[in-house]
TrEMBL record, chain A:
Transmembrane portions of the chain: none
Entry keyword Translocase: no
UniProt xrefs under InterPro entries: Alpha-ketoacid_DH_E1_comp (IPR050771), DH_E1 (IPR001017), Oxoisoval_DH_suAlpha_N_dom (IPR022593), THDP-binding (IPR029061)
First-level EC class: oxidoreductase
EC number: 1.2.4.4
The reaction(s) this protein catalyses: N(6)-[(R)-lipoyl]-L-lysyl-[protein] + 3-methyl-2-oxobutanoate + H(+) = N(6)-[(R)-S(8)-2-methylpropanoyldihydrolipoyl]-L-lysyl-[protein] + CO2
Superkingdom: Bacteria
Coiled coil regions in record: none
Pfam families reported for this sequence: E1_dh, OxoDH_E1alpha_N
Taxonomic source organism: Pseudomonas mangiferae
Cofactor(s) required for function per UniProt: thiamine diphosphate
Keywords noted in UniProt: Oxidoreductase, Thiamine pyrophosphate
UniProt-recorded name of the protein: 2-oxoisovalerate dehydrogenase subunit alpha
Automatic annotation (TrEMBL), chain B:
Top-level taxon: Bacteria
Sorted UniProt keywords: Oxidoreductase, Thiamine pyrophosphate
Biological processes, Gene Ontology terms: branched-chain amino acid catabolic process; response to nutrient
UniProt cofactor(s): thiamine diphosphate
EC number assigned by the record: 1.2.4.4
Gene Ontology MF term list: branched-chain 2-oxo acid dehydrogenase activity
Role: The branched-chain alpha-keto dehydrogenase complex catalyzes the overall conversion of alpha-keto acids to acyl-CoA and CO(2). It contains multiple copies of three enzymatic components: branched-chain alpha-keto acid decarboxylase (E1), lipoamide acyltransferase (E2) and lipoamide dehydrogenase (E3).
Name of the protein in question: 2-oxoisovalerate dehydrogenase subunit beta
Residue span(s) of domain Transketolase-like pyrimidine-binding: 18-193
Claim: Oxidoreductase is one of the keywords in the record: yes
């Protein structure tokens, strides 16, 4: 290389395009059990090594190994497995409903179920999540009515959001689930503000911020980390790195040659990088971060390494930009299969129980769908009243909206 | 009436002479004292007390968890405010200059303004976004802008601008108490005294003006209510902020008996007062500092045309800033001063 050569622009490229195979060595994996577990009051700068390695608990044989292997009750693990299975069953059913034109739109979280479910089980009632559109596992884990969720998806007469929101943009204050916005990244700094408020009031509740790998490039990610650090806000800053932002590989968010967890170190935020498909690691790391926040020790950033197994949304066809069999080659596998294997290995689950649970969940989801559709669908026109459209813009309806409602004749 | 209420009533009745800065500070002082959920933050607002002194002494009085400095990040300030409000606080967030609100516009427009609607009332944004605005101070391009039209067109927001100390305090208290998000624009040209556009004359301090008499305790000036600051019969001038004073000067200097309406709340606005006045005067002039095209004046013209068409005897006239960025050296050719307003008044009065 001489300094007189012409410059050239570097444009990242995934190794795997349709018809090829992805080389996943870029992921920088660590063997299960090999990464240390620091004390809760660790200095953020002393988590530098953790931000570049990968915390994993479950080994190839489904055994829990290493310092992050906690004494988790089999009941809790079964609850987690069931919530993951239910989330997947819900997703697959809603995907079909969208194809049948009962819904206008849907977004699955296939392959990412462990992260939302595991963290929710590590949080307390009253803690507030600021999710993206791919954390429906939080609602399932908190046992929100699937009928009601479907009513939101169908925009029908029972839609709790009165038909105002695109499907999947849920809002469940009582379940600690902040209103989802279509604008990416905005909720990240809001979660920090919520945590600051909890600290201002001397509360004990914490918040949880969620963002995908792609949206870390948005300016609100930077603001969130800065504010979380400056005010030592009691917040868990989750980055779900599923490798893809629609069609763009995570390198386009700045992931090439580095990790998203490593970003946290520069901001002075303790940072972990965790196997997002390892339910035990998700639960343990989430609990660690939640404890840190609760003890006023400050925020924690966690990069969850996972893979977006499904299409980005029902409007997306991933076979146009990545290999069709990519998920089967992803080295961290399937979170449900891995927890199932572990539970069977410790004698707390069986193939038969799994099969029965799967069938029961599918039946439950099917019957919920039937009930939800009985309240109407977007297609059959049984949607919330047009008069509802003018409500809630302001606390009290101003004169101009009253006039506009009258003009519509509703 | 118990002793505490008596004391409050006494406080409310005590009146002091305040500048707009002192009146705004007093509003925040009152609300910090009345409501534990009120918090104030922004760049330099804490220890230092604000670059315009609007929060002077508040951190010392209420503590660092109620009044605090923020990183230089307008999207961060606005986004954190949305999160705090979702928790149940009542944040008053300061943007140092309205010219620097743009990074926060995504949070204000996509989040604060929409939150109640999209969550069907589960979450709300009881936030006040304070920001000094307006020109006439040799502020150049990024210390003079009037971006109100960016906010008036956003459903879910309230946009408010006072023109004197009494209204500044009362409107700010009403804004902080409002459960809707409020963009509270403060004409910095009016911070220390009224300004009628005669830049070649010495500025009179607020102390010499009756609207500087401000109750020391709690009171509010309701939102959505305009004020007729100069009753008149020949023409209605719809304006707000600094140009309220310009309009009055132009009326005096031309001898045209203009009725000057200070909108105070830009949107939602007090349509009734506007329509009543124009139906009486049958002529209308719209005046603002902001640039003309798609400025808020266009909406005012449209509303008057729609509601007063059969009463109008002349086309509605607009006097505004030019459709250029706010210049430095050409400040007084840009700012819509009394000469330009006077000429427009005469045009509208022509038969």
């Amino acid at each position: 290389m001489s300094d007189s050569e012409r410059l050239c622009l570097h444009v990242p490229e995934p190794t795997g395009r349709p018809g090829c195979q992805t080389d996943f060595t870029y992921l920088k994996l660590s063997p299960a059990g090999s990464v240390r577990r620091p004390p809760l009051d660790v200095e953020p700068v002393d988590t530098r090594d953790l931000s570049m390695q990968l915390i994993r608990v479950l080994d190839e044989n489904g055994q829990a190994v290493g310092p992050w292997a906690e004494d988790i009750s089999p009941d809790l693990l079964r609850r987690g497995l069931r919530a993951m299975m239910k989330t997947r069953a819900f997703d697959s059913r809603m995907l079909i409903a969208q194809r049948q034109k009962k819904l206008s739109f849907y977004i699955q979280c296939l392959g990412e179920e462990a992260i939302a479910v595991g963290q929710t089980l590590a949080l307390r009632d009253g803690d507030m999540n600021f999710p993206t559109y791919r954390q429906q596992g939080i609602l399932i884990t908190r046992e929100v009515s699937t009928v009601e969720m479907m009513c939101q998806l169908l925009s029908n007469e029972r839609d709790p959001l009165k038909g105002r929101q695109l499907p999947v943009m849920y809002s469940y204050r009582d379940a600690g689930f902040f209103s989802i916005s279509g604008n990416l990244g905005t909720q990240y700094i809001q979660a920090v503000g919520w945590a600051m408020a909890s600290a201002i009031k001397g509360d004990t509740r914490i918040s949880s911020a969620w963002i995908g790998d792609g949206s870390t490039a948005a300016s609100d990610f930077h603001a969130g980390l800065t504010f979380a650090h400056v005010y030592k806000a009691p917040v868990i800053l989750n980055v779900v790195n599923n490798q893809w932002a629609i069609s763009t590989f995570q390198a386009f968010a700045g992931g090439e040659g580095t990790t998203f967890a490593a970003r946290g170190i520069g901001y002075g935020v303790a940072s972990l990088r965790v196997d997002g498909n390892d339910f035990l690691a998700v639960y343990a790391a989430s609990r660690w971060a939640a404890e840190r926040a609760r003890r006023n020790l400050g925020p924690t950033l966690i990069e969850w390494v996972t893979y977006r197994a499904g299409p980005h949304s029902t409007s997306d066809d991933p076979s146009k930009y990545r290999p069709a069999d990519d998920w089967s080659n992803f080295p961290l596998g399937d979170p449900i299969a891995r927890l199932k294997k572990h539970l069977i290995a410790i004698g707390a689950w069986s193939e038969q129980e799994h099969e029965e649970t799967q069938k029961a969940l599918e039946a439950e989801i099917a019957s919920a769908q039937k009930e939800a559709e009985s309240y109407g669908t977007l297609g059959n026109g049984r949607v919330p009243s047009a008069a509802d459209m003018f409500e809630g813009v302001y606390k009290d309806m101003p004169e101009h909206l009253r006039r506009q409602r009258q003009q519509l004749g509703v | 009436m118990n002793a505490l209420n008596e004391q409050k009533a006494h406080e409310a009745s005590a009146v002091a002479s305040m500048t707009m800065i002192q009146a705004l500070r007093s509003a925040m002082d009152v609300m910090l004292g009345r409501d534990d959920n009120v918090v104030i933050f922004g760049e330099d607002v804490g220890y230092f007390g604000g670059v315009f002194r609007c929060t002077d002494g508040l951190q010392a009085k209420y503590g660092k968890s109620r009044v605090f400095d923020a990183p230089i990040s307008e999207n961060g300030i606005a986004g954190a405010a949305v999160g705090m409000s979702a928790y149940g606080l009542r944040p008053v967030a300061e943007i140092q200059f309205a010219d620097y609100v743009y990074p926060a516009v995504d949070q204000i427009v996509s989040e604060a303004a929409r939150l109640r609607y999209r969550s069907n009332g589960q979450f709300t944004s009881a936030i006040t976004f304070r920001m000094p605005c307006g020109g006439g101070i040799y502020g150049g391009q990024t210390h003079s802008q009037s971006p109100e039209a960016i906010f008036t067109q956003v459903c879910g927001l309230r946009t408010v601008m006072p023109s004197n100390p009494y209204d500044a305090k009362g409107l700010l208290i009403a804004s902080i108490e409002s459960d809707d998000p409020v963009v509270f624009l403060e004409p910095k040209r009016l911070y220390n005294g009224p300004f009628d556009g005669h830049h070649d004359r010495p500025v009179t301090p607020w102390a010499k003006h009756p609207t500087a008499a401000v109750p020391e305790g709690y009171y509010n000036v309701p939102l959505d209510s305009a004020a007729v600051v100069r009753p008149g019969k020949q023409i209605t001038i719809l304006t707000y902020g600094t140009t309220v004073w310009v309009a009055q000067a132009a009326a005096e200097e031309t001898g045209i008996d203009a009725e000057v309406i200070d909108l105070r709340s830009l949107w939602p606005l007090d349509l009734e007062t506007i329509v009543e006045s124009v139906k009486k005067t049958r002529r209308c002039l719209v005046l603002h500092e902001a640039t003309r095209t798609c400025g808020f004046g266009a909406e005012l013209v449209s509303l008057v045309q729609e509601h007063c068409f059969y009463h109008l005897e002349a086309p509605i006239e607009r006097v505004t800033g030019w459709d250029t960025p706010y210049p430095h050296a050409q400040e007084w050719d840009y700012f819509p001063g009394p000469a330009r307003v006077g000429a427009a008044l005469k045009r509208v009065m022509e038969v």
